[in-house]
Amino acid sequence: MIVYSGSKKMFRNDAINGIIAGKIDSLFVKLGIPRASDSVLNSFKNSLPRIALVIEASRIDDDVQVAIEYQIPLTSKRVDLMIAGTDGNRDNVVIVELKQWEDCEPTDMEDVVTAFTGGALREVAHPSQQAYSYAKLIENFNEDVRSNNIGLIPCAYLHNFKEENRGKICDERYKNALADAPVFLQEDGAALSEFLARFVSKPSSKKLFDIIENGRLLPSKSLQDEVGRILNGNNEFAMIDEQQVAYATVLKLVQKSIESDEKHTIIVQGGPGTGKSVIAINLLAKILNNGFSCAYVTKTSAPRTAFKTKLVRGDHSVSYLKGLFMSSGSFVDVPSNTFSCLIVDEAHRLNAKSGLYSNVGENQIREIINASKISVFFIDEDQVVTTKDIGSIDEIRKQARICGSTVHFNKSLILTSQFRCNGSDGYLAFLDDVIQIRSTANRTYYDIDYDVRVFDNATDMREELRRHNGNNKARMIAGYCYPWKSKNDKRYYDITLPGGFSAQWNFTTDQFAIAPDSFEQVGCIHSTQGLEFDYVGVIIGLDMRYENGKVLTDFEQRDSNDKTVSGIRTSKNYALADRIIRNTYKTLLSRGLKGCFIYCQDPSLGEYLKQRIELAQKIHQ
Q1: Buried b / exposed e across 147-167, counting CB within 10 Å, b at 16+?
Q2: Cα–Cα distance for residue pair 215/244, rounded to 1 Å
Q3: What is the model's pTM?
Q4: Residue-wise burial string across 493-527, b where 16 or more C-beta atoms lie within 10 A, e elsewhere
Q5: What is the per-residue pLDDT for 479?
Q6: Which of 300, 422, 510, 592 is an S-S bond match for 450, by CB 3.0 to 4.6 Å?
């Protein structure tokens, strides 16, 4: 969505006449977007007149198009300013990242600087890296941008940045980022003017912003599809903002500590879709390419198998991959510091015991920390989904102390912006509230820019999902409330629901995300956690219902073979069972990049969800 767009002449007049910030504020309201904060409006007032003067001085026609505040599809990220036109041979869109900084300090972290922003000194992505990553996101997501061969030209304009500080922002260590996206400072107005004229001097015959805003979205890149190219050194997922900071923070600690005798444990926290797995795989590739021993570790077998399957089809041997993607139970007897680095994804799923019968070892967290000089744990405590899951920040700290490992966990290692659910942070807050995991602020308003629908019939949901199954990227998933009859006899259907719906559980948990015949099957938490799809259809069983104004859970409605709630009847830890069921459905409901369809076996829950979603979407519209 683009908030403001118009010709160069219109933008210039609005900016120079001092009405641009007010116009944008009104457009936020008109478009149903939460109003910008005072600090953001002040940045408009300060930055936009400066760029307007540059554009006015540039040798570009008055009819060249300008846009402000564009939300990149499938993300929560916004581009400050775009200028669209042609250089005479090719249509181009220049992406401009605007900053009001006067100074910054270089760091030893890859493409990260320290700057005063948000009321404090913070480690943030270099503006050039930020602009470049936004251009790559648009290129990766928008099929029409690619098919029309539209050039995306990123740059940054720091109009208050003092000349005497140029050496800091243009330090040699940022040469690659600067080559990808040049930075222009306070005294570079003329240079920026010429830069713009080189790419967008004339208006295009095409409506370039319509293509940017409404172009067909590619079947989005998924990590399971691109892992091989990442390991081969290709930049398939440009890391964005806090992703880059977290990646660079971890990489710096690894590089400084890997040759010493010290042990270090790093915790990276982030909710669904914040890019934890993308960072983990990029770190794996970087550390391996630097010549150190490293492995990707997760308890959940589905992502390990998906990654390995894709890689086996490439140039990698099975034996190599076995040592590269490892189960969390592989380190019981591994000597101390055998690995330079172990990268642990889905750390909230770690268990105490290992082995087929959970009778081996003492604590997977401790065993991992012991086995490696550097251990990196990616965690979301709200995705604990079984009674055996012990992964928590406190438990990692505790086991690190036992192993004599220094713990690193700070604001730079907390991921907030998410890249699933169409980038709708409001949708995730809505889930917390609507299934009553926790009350969230602004309860009556959620900015749900996401395709979420409730169906009265599971068959209708499946057929609508089928229409969205481009490139085998849609799946049905459910809570484990149905016996797995087809496991031993494929003649049986496991899930039968009113309206003629019948389906079997996934034939193999490990291949569910990538197998060509998986659409007709239904996956569970074990076959989907840690993975993502374009669209998901979620069946909420009778373990969750709506009654007397409350969302209730009932672990007794889970199938007797469901191990996620094993031991509850004996321990009577009903609060844990309640947490597991709610976490499970939040995890399932946040697997879709573009949309989530829902069927509730309890009609009252379906009506409740439908009313809440309709209310949120009405407000959004």
Answers
A1: eeebbbbbbbbbbebeeebbe
A2: 27
A3: 0.70
A4: ebbebeeebebbbbeebbbbbbbeebbebbbbbbb
A5: 93
A6: 422
Distance CA(137)–CA(181), nearest Å, equals 14
Per-residue three-class SS string for 59-74: CCCCCCEEEEEEECCC
Helices (H), 152-235: 166-169, 175-180, 189-200, 208-214, 223-231
Tell how strand 339-344 and strand 183-184 pair up. unpaired
Residue whose structure tokens are 């001092």 = 18
For residue 379 the two structure tokens come to 């965690």
Tokens at residue 523, please? 């996956």
Backbone phi, then psi, for 279, in 5-degree steps? -65, -45
Q: How many helices (H) and strands (E) does the chain have?
A: 22, 25
Residues 6+ apart with CB under 8 A from 106: 113, 114, 168, 169, 171, 173, 174
Instruction: Write the CATH number of the domain with boundaries 223-415.
Output: 3.40.50
CA dihedral 368, 371, 373, 377 (to 10 degrees): -10
Q: Tell me the per-residue pLDDT of 228-238, one tens digit each, with 9 for 90 and over.
A: 455 554 455 56
2-214 architecture in CATH?
3-Layer(aba) Sandwich (3.40)
The helix (run of H) or strand (run of E) holding residue 266 is strand 263-270
* Domain boundary assignment for the chain: 2-214, 223-415, 421-620
Locus of tokens 């505790």 = 398
Q: What is the DSSP string of 75-102?
A: SS-EEEEEEEEE-SSSEEEEEEEEE--S
**Cα–Cα distance for residue pair 617/605, rounded to 1 Å:** 18
- Rg (C-alpha) for the chain, rounded Å, is 25
Q: CA angle, corner 41, sides to 35 and 46, nearest 5?
A: 165
> Across residues 279-292, what is the average pLDDT?
83
Residues in CB range of 365: below 8 A, 6 or more apart: 347, 350, 377, 390, 391, 395, 396, 399
Taking the CA atoms of residue 322, residue 327, residue 331 and residue 332 in that order, the dihedral angle to the nearest 10 degrees is -130
Contacts of 266 (CB under 8 A, 6+ apart): 249, 250, 253, 374, 375, 376, 377, 407, 408, 409, 413
Range among 217-221, 233-237, 373-377 with highest mean pLDDT value: 373-377
d(CA 501, CA 406): 53
| Contact predicate 596/452, CB 8 Å | yes
Give residue-wise pLDDT tens across range 456-486: 999 999 999 999 997 888 999 999 999 999 8
Chain centroid to CA 185: how far? Answer: 31
351 in Cβ contact with 563 (< 8 Å): no
Coil/strand/helix, residue 485: helix
